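User: Fold this one for me? It's Nickel/oligopeptide ABC transporter ATP-binding protein.
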Amino acid sequence: MSDPLLKVESLTKHFPLSAGILKKNGPVVRAVEAVSFSVEAGETLCIVGESGCGKSTVARLLMRLMEPTDGRVLIEGTDIAGLKKHELRAFRRRMQMVFQDPYSSLNPRLTAAQIITEPVENFERLGRSQRQALAADLLQKVGLGPEIMHRLPSELSGGQRQRLGIARALSLKPSLIIADEAVSALDVSVQAQILNLLMDLQQQMGIAFVFISHDLGVVEHIGHRVAVMYLGRIVELATCEALFAKPVHPYTEALIAAAPVPDPTRARLEAPVEGEVPSPINPPTGCAFHPRCPLAVDRCRIDVPPLTSMADGRAVACHVRAPASANAQPDMVIAG
Ligand SMILES: Nc1ncnc2c1ncn2[C@@H]1O[C@H](COP(=O)(O)OP(=O)(O)OP(=O)(O)O)[C@@H](O)[C@H]1O
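Assistant: Here's what I get for Nickel/oligopeptide ABC transporter ATP-binding protein.
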């Protein structure tokens, strides 16, 4: 069997709170703890969870914008940690990122055409006509007209700027795009247009997405599979269909219950979870969700539940709902 496009194994990131010599054994923010998943070519894996659960840190680790404390990121079987600078550059061509705020991530002094051709020009020299043709083609791909070509980001609407950010990401023909809250700053109607654009591009170009969002409505619209994170860990990983039809982890259940219901014929689930997300500096022992969990038993206060695959193919980390039996496979990642 061939390697998945992206494989993440036990990825962990702790941020030290102290500097200098105190750094080594001082307190840390446990932003990401032993996160494992894989993404197949052409697939959309969503990562969802409340603010501070570690979603953006996972994105930055995937792009190797920071070093992990532990764990590995493999692209088609190659560990990106072992790559030399020039090899990493070649890999980066295949992985691009789209950010939440297209305004701050686009150079305000460059025109739209310069912004979207810049990544290609980092690798090869383009003549004037080649640059024009590339810019026109990319603008067309994201539904923008050629009249945008000479405008600055400040002369564009939020939706147009995000389309420009996507065009820039597409310029190097990536096989994977990491979109971190890519539609959160946009109006709901513009959000839907951008999500549909991403889905069309996926169909046409076979791009895979890691789509990070706190918005379950967005995730349900765009995702093939969903990883639900709580305090740095994945607590449930399932197909979108299975997750929304029947969440298994009590936290997933609570998240879905708390989300606005776009379809009035769909019944709301039970009351959302009470209380605050605990601090990642001093997380609860055992299952980090136990202080807020209505189902918690003694074991939940002591042992961290492993992500265990269930009969229907999903993986859940819960001693009560997904007890690890003799033949279950902890930390197994379900394929798409
Ligand atoms: N550079 C850093 N130094 C110290 N702590 C950090 C750093 N970056 C992130 N954190 C902490 O790590 C935890 C996870 O942050 P992260 O931004 O990954 O969460 P998130 O789920 O993306 O949240 P949001 O949706 O609010 O962006 C948070 O407690 C955050 O404060």
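One thing worth pointing out: Residues 267-271, 329-336 have pLDDT under 50 and may be disordered.
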